[in-house]
Amino acid sequence: MSKYSPQFDDFFRRLDRRRRIYRWWRLLGRFLLVIGVLFSALWFLLQNERFQNYLVHRITTYLSAELRTQVALDRVDFDFFDQLVLEEFYIEDQIGDTLLYSKELRVEMSIDLISLLQRRVDVDNIYLSDAQINI
User: Fold this and answer.
1) Helical H runs in 1-135?
2) Is the dihedral of CA 88, 92, 97, 100 positive or negative?
3) Best label site of 85, 90, 115, 130, fewest CB within 10 Å?
4) Which among 115, 108, 68 is positioned nearest to 91, based on CA atoms?
5) What is the DSSP string of 90-123?
6) How far is CA 69 from CA 55, 60, 75, in A?
7) From CA 134, how far away is CA 90, in angstroms rounded?
8) Mean pLDDT of the chain, nearest integer
């Protein structure tokens, strides 16, 4: 039993509840702010020319090793987080002829957090612009 009146105890219970709710909202706001800053930083990083050149080197090295042939790429651009644009994309066949050349290759992807954690990206559509394909 409290030595204070019931109204006084009720006031402090409501005040404590309001403080807890305020703390949760403040924590949620900070979390959303951090997520927004991280996505903004990632977006600006993807628009940086030095980082794009690094990506070009990584993509061409990976594809050349996987396909066991020469792959060349002039520029990488991200339109949104779900669209990748490869400019001046070139793949050679085993003989040394042009297998695929495209002035612009646009890839639309479905990206979510789970697929990123599994290092998997689902490709929805691929668009070729000014393409030459030799089969």
Assistant:
1) 6-47, 49-67, 113-117
2) negative
3) 130
4) 68
5) EEE-TTSSEEEEEEEEEEEEE--HHHHHTT--EE
6) 19, 10, 19
7) 12
8) 84
* Residues 6 or more apart whose Cβ sits within 8 Å of residue 83: 106, 107, 108, 109
Mean pLDDT of 88-115: 86
Q: What is the mean pLDDT of residues 112-121?
A: 77
Bridge partner residues of 122 (DSSP): 110
Calpha distance 69→18 (Å, rounded): 65
Per-residue confidence band for 119, with pLDDT thresholds at 50, 70 and 90: confident
pLDDT at res. 4: 65
Helix (H) or strand (E) holding 77: strand 75-80
Instruction: Yes or no: say if 51 and 45 are a contact pair by the CB < 8 Å rule.
Output: yes
Backbone angles phi, psi at 10, to 5 degrees: -65, -40
